[in-house]
């Protein structure tokens, strides 16, 4: 059975569950622009959505998935030694997929992803290039390696969230101050979760001479910083009357607050996992309201359960899960 499942390694090295926050932030940008701005389709956008009968955001979301899959592979290639120490993301770290094969797969995803984005519009294509540079190249590749630096790692996640939100916004909108204003709660929410993700890997990162935010500032300041950012997300979402992020931020503040009170790793892990789930549920509801379709729900459920089956049969582990 394990030998039969081995070809699926090349699918799951993309880390499909990490697409959840990418998809939700992207769709949030699209839905928020529809609510708060005058819809104006780019003159440079072709009729790819109209010709196929699929909404434009579905196609752009597919292109974004290709690109981010390549980015996630690149990150694993660069992190393969510390991933081995931290006992995580072992497909490349443990040699199930060679770095050479991983590079090739990343290239095969990047080229069509970027090309199709530019075919859709120059603006979306330019954003895709920005996403690749920020979340892929300068975040992971030496001599940049922003992921290994406390402030630059933070900056990369801020910019990455902003660019992905902007991609959804620009499907029918344009770059303006409204985009930047409405992106604030989403950027803060994503960054809050990012800060907490640096904490479980502190020992392995420090041993590998990576100075992440958690390594540099320690457990307690990082927990407080994440709580503050989620609080900012909640307040700004309320001020902007943005229900898509308000309800996730409202319920998430309970997890961040509990982590800030107890200062325990298991509470930090819950504050990483549950906010992503809550935002995904809210966006699923919004998707159903806007399109009348449960497609997004089926995609999320399919990715989650197929991932559980794959990891259980292939490696005998329970992943993904919501336990701390």
The number of distinct structural domains comes to 1
**E-strand count:** 0
Residues in helix, %: over 70%
Q: What summary fits the major beta sheet?
A: none
Average pLDDT across residues? 92
Order of helices and strands: HHHHHHHHHHHHHHHHH
Low-confidence stretches: 39-53
What's the helix count? Answer: 17
Task: Calculate Rg over CA atoms.
Answer: 19 Å
Query: In angstroms, what separates the terminal alpha carbons?
Result: 29 Å
Shape: globular
Proportion of strand residues? under 5%
| Secondary-structure content class | mainly alpha
Per CATH, what is the topology?
A: Farnesyl Diphosphate Synthase
Named at the architecture level, the CATH assignment is: Orthogonal Bundle
Describe the structure.
With 324 residues, the protein is mainly α. Helices cover 76% and strands 0% of the residues. Helix 5 packs antiparallel against helix 8, helix 8 runs antiparallel to helix 9 and helix 16 packs antiparallel against helix 17. The protein is globular and about 50 Å long. About 5% of the residues have low confidence.
In short:
The protein is mainly alpha-helical.
Furnish the topology, listing elements before pairings.
Elements: H1 2-5, H2 9-12, H3 19-36, H4 48-52, H5 56-78, H6 80-85, H7 90-93, H8 99-120, H9 122-140, H10 150-169, H11 177-197, H12 202-207, H13 213-217, H14 219-239, H15 243-262, H16 265-291, H17 295-315
Helix pairs in contact: 3-5, 3-10, 3-11, 3-16, 5-8, 5-9, 8-9, 9-10, 10-11, 11-14, 11-16, 14-15, 15-16, 16-17
């Amino acid at each position: 059975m394990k030998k039969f499942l081995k070809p699926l390694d090349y699918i799951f090295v993309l880390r499909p569950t990490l697409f959840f926050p990418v998809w939700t932030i992207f769709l949030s940008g699209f839905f928020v622009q529809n609510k708060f701005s005058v819809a104006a389709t780019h003159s440079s956008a072709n009729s790819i959505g109209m010709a196929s009968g699929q909404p434009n955001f579905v196609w752009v979301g597919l292109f974004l998935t290709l690109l981010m899959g390549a980015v996630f592979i690149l990150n694993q290639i660069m992190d393969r030694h510390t991933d081995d120490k931290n006992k995580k993301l072992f497909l490349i770290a443990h040699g199930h997929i060679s770095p050479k094969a991983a590079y090739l797969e990343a290239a095969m995803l990047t080229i069509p992803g970027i090309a199709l984005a530019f075919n859709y519009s120059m603006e979306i294509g330019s954003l895709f290039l920005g996403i690749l540079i920020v979340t892929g190249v300068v975040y992971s590749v030496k001599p940049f390696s922003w992921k290994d630096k406390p402030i630059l790692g933070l900056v990369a996640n801020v910019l990455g969230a902003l660019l992905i939100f902007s991609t959804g916004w620009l499907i029918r909108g344009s770059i303006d101050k409204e985009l930047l204003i409405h992106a604030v709660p989403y950027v803060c929410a994503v960054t809050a979760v990012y800060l907490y993700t640096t904490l479980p890997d502190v020992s392995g990162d420090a041993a590998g001479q990576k100075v992440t935010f958690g390594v540099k500032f320690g457990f307690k300041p990082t927990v407080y910083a994440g709580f503050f950012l989620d609080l900012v997300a909640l307040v700004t979402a309320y001020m902007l009357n943005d229900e898509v992020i308000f309800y996730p931020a409202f319920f998430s503040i309970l997890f961040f607050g509990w982590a800030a009170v107890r200062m325990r790793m298991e509470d930090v892990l819950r504050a990483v996992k549950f906010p992503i789930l809550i935002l995904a549920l809210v966006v699923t509801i919004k998707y159903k309201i806007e399109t009348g379709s449960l497609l997004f729900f089926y995609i999320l459920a399919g990715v989650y359960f197929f991932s559980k089956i794959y990891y259980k049969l292939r490696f005998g582990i329970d992943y993904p899960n919501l336990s701390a």
